[in-house]
Design brief:
Length: about 400
């Protein structure tokens, strides 16, 4: 009888550098972990690799000046430029902002409020409630400083408007800030617009285009190589991370080839069909800081076909309390096992499934992996998962 359900292990690997054979490193590291820690492989185990080491190994980097060149070419060397809805992140956006500022003489920055799309705050919401401003207001930089300018992020102790303004001006560019949640308000200042939001990117670009803007999305910057640079044809600058003060690592491009090759090698070595995925940010929200972790355009940019779809589960508490309310102990357990074995694949929307998570498998598993590996010094860029697809009826 099995005593464990899902088991998640962070797998240590050598430090990954540009040009490394990542398929070999991942395969050998997982096999070594199995040998040293005495676990066997099964069909539908999962091997997951953080997108960071995929991008590093494939050398998918761009310099600030390469980004500048792309922006200048796309906007025809703009004298002024507007950006809408950038996230408030020193790691994710500050180096991109440096490139944007370096590409023009005057930059209008439109921030959403009370926070960016991933939950980073820009003002005190209690003060906003007491003010004459609403979420539909346009707040000028002067009004912001007068009413909310003393606000500091509770985790970083930084006011990102101040941080961004100094960064822009250090590039010799004039900076003008406004706060508004309506994308087209930027057109009161300039017609040249770079939309920087992540998960609402297509709608924002469409609204700006319909209003007459000369607009590109951040996903369209560095979507092709510039002077030998890296690039990402699907996501552009989205999912990029600061590498140095003058270089960014882009979201990986070759993930699908990688996961299929690792699956092939593991099948050859173990005889099992093991699912493989690349994961980035998890899709979860910090209940204290109110930050939604997902600053990448997707949780998983590449995965094998067995990870397609959503869970097919029933709610054990509901079945126990309702259909089998009179049963206890082994009799209850056996009855629930039979219910699981006979479950209808078309249960979506019925009460028996409510409380289970109707999200994509790759989003759920990727979030589990992100929490396991973290973003610090654990040294486990590979996560190995067993039992994720099992249920109580499996022995």
């Amino acid at each position: 009888m099995r005593d464990l359900g899902t088991v998640v292990r962070g797998v240590r690997t050598p430090i990954i550098k540009e040009g490394d054979d990542l398929a070999t490193i991942v395969t050998e590291s997982v096999l070594k972990a199995s040998e040293n820690n005495h676990f066997e492989f099964h069909d539908r185990d999962v091997v997951a690799i953080t997108e960071a080491v995929v991008g590093i190994s494939e050398g998918n980097y761009v310099t600030v000046d390469q980004v500048v060149e792309d922006i200048k070419q796309k906007f025809n060397h703009p004298e002024e430029l507007g950006i809408v809805f950038p996230i408030l992140s020193r790691n994710r956006f500050s180096i991109i902002l440096k490139a944007i500022a370096r590409s023009t003489k005057k930059l209008y920055v439109q921030l959403s409020f009370p926070s960016d799309e991933v939950g980073n705050g820009i003002l005190d919401e209690d003060k906003l409630d007491r003010s004459n401003f609403t979420l539909g207001s346009v707040i000028t930089e002067e009004e912001y400083r007068e009413n909310f300018g003393d606000w500091l992020h509770p985790f970083t102790g930084i006011n990102m408007l101040d941080f961004y303004k100094e960064l822009i001006e250090n590039e010799g560019c004039e900076a003008v800030f406004i706060l508004s949640n309506k994308a087209t308000d930027i057109l009161k200042y300039t017609k040249n617009v770079l939309s920087c939001d992540i998960h609402t990117r297509y709608r924002t670009k469409k609204l700006l285009e319909q209003a007459g803007a000369n607009v590109y999305g951040l996903f369209e910057i560095m979507n092709a190589s510039v002077n030998g640079s890296g690039f990402n044809e699907k996501y552009g600058m989205l999912g990029s991370n600061k590498s140095t003060e003058e270089r960014l690592k882009l979201f990986p491009r070759t993930g699908q080839t990688l996961v299929e090759e690792i699956q092939r090698r593991l099948k050859e070595k173990t005889g099992k069909t093991i699912e493989v995925m690349v994961y980035g940010d998890g899709a979860f929200k910090d209940p204290v800081g109110h930050i939604w972790e997902l600053a990448d355009p997707v949780v998983s940019p590449a995965y094998t076909s067995g990870l397609e779809g959503t869970p097919n589960e029933i709610k054990l508490k509901y079945v126990s309390d309702n259909k089998f309310a009179s049963l206890r102990g082994d009799e209850l357990k056996e009855a629930i096992k039979e219910e699981i074995r006979a479950k209808d694949k078309n249960l979506k929307g019925q009460m028996i499934t409510q409380g289970t998570t109707p999200r994509r498998l790759t989003d759920l598993i990727g979030s589990l992996c992100d929490l396991t590996s973290g973003s610090g010094d654990k040294g486990t860029p590979v996560v190995f998962i067993q039992g994720y697809f099992d249920n109580l009826a499996d022995e």
